[in-house]
Specification:
Structural class: alpha/beta
Number of helices: 10
CATH architecture: 3-Layer(aba) Sandwich
Oligomer: single chain
CATH class: Alpha Beta
Radius of gyration: 17 Å
Order of helices and strands: EEEHEEHEHHHHEHEHEEHH
Helix content: 25-40%
Shape: globular
Length: 234
C-alpha cells in the first residue's frame, strides 16, 4: 500500500531524514519507534505532503505521491493525526468532525460515518455540542482521531497518540486504534512508548538520527536485546 524508497527530507539546509526505506502493507499496523528528535514526525509530515522530499520517492497504491499537495493526498485516502492533536479549540466537537469530512459530498454516508465515530468514541456523543478546547487531553485525542476518520482514510498516520496522557487513557486509546484497524483501516503509528506500540503493531521500524536501523515483526522487536535495552527500559 505505502512504499518509501531512499527518502531524504529536511528543513532548509538541515537534513533530517537520510535514505529512509519503509513499507506498510494493507491491513497492517506498522509502528515507527525512536527517541525524540530522530525524524519520526518529519517522516509523517513528508508522507502527508506537508514537507517535500529532497530525494527519494513515496508510493501509495503504486502511485508516486512524493510531490502531491496535502489536500490531494487526503483525497487519495491518507489522513494524518498530528502530534499534539491540533483540534480546532473554538469549534464544537461536531464542527471539528465536519471539518474532517470537508472533501466529501456524500451527505448520507457522512451522516453514517458520524454515527460510526460516535460509536467508537461514546464520550464524543456526550460532548458533541461542547467546544473542543474545553475537552480533556484524552478526549481531544479521540476527537483528532475521529476527525481524521471522517475523511474515510485507507491509511491513517498517527503521531504520538499517547503524548501527555495518563496510562489508563493511553490503554483505552490503543484499544481503539486496534479496533479501527480491525474494521479495515491500515495504520502507520509513530510512538515514543515503544512497549505499547510494539504490543499493538504487526511490524515495526526503529529510527535513529534520521535513519532506519532496525525492522522486523513487532513480536521480534519486543524480544530484541538492543530494543529492550534502548527503548523498553530493560
Amino acid at each position: 500500500m505505502l512504499k518509501i524508497e531512499n527518502l531524504s527530507t529536511g528543513y532548509g539546509n538541515i537534513r533530517v531524514l537520510h535514505q529512509v526505506n519503509l513499507t506498510v502493507n494493507e491491513g497492517d499496523i506498522v509502528t515507527l519507534i525512536g527517541s525524540n528528535g530522530v525524524g519520526k514526525t518529519t517522516l509523517l509530515r513528508t508522507i502527508s505532503g506537508l514537507l517535500r522530499p529532497t530525494e527519494g520517492n513515496i508510493y501509495f497504491d503504486n502511485k508516486n505521491i512524493s510531490h502531491t499537495p496535502p489536500h490531494d493526498i487526503v483525497e487519495l485516502g491518507i489522513s494524518h493525526v498530528p502530534e499534539g492533536r491540533n483540534v480546532f479549540p473554538r469549534l464544537t466537537v461536531m464542527e471539528n468532525l465536519e471539518m474532517g469530512a470537508y472533501i466529501r459530498k456524500d451527505k448520507a454516508a457522512i451522516k453514517k460515518d458520524f454515527s460510526m465515530v460516535m460509536e467508537i468514541f461514546p464520550v464524543l456523543e456526550k460532548r458533541k455540542k461542547q467546544l473542543a478546547g474545553t475537552l480533556s487531553g484524552g478526549e481531544q485525542q479521540m476527537l483528532a482521531i475521529g476527525r481524521a476518520l471522517m475523511s474515510r482514510p485507507r491509511l491513517l498516520l498517527l503521531d504520538e497518540p499517547s503524548m501527555g496522557l495518563a496510562p489508563l487513557i493511553v490503554a483505552g486509546i490503543f484499544e481503539i486504534i486496534t479496533e479501527i484497524n480491525r474494521q479495515g483501516t491500515t495504520i502507520l503509528l509513530v510512538e515514543q512508548n515503544a512497549q505499547i506500540a510494539l504490543r499493538t503493531a504487526h511490524r515495526g521500524y526503529v529510527m535513529e538520527t534520521g535513519r532506519i536501523v532496525l525492522e522486523d515483526s513487532a513480536a521480534a522487536l519486543l524480544q530484541n536485546d538492543q530494543v529492550r535495552k534502548a527503548y523498553l527500559g530493560e
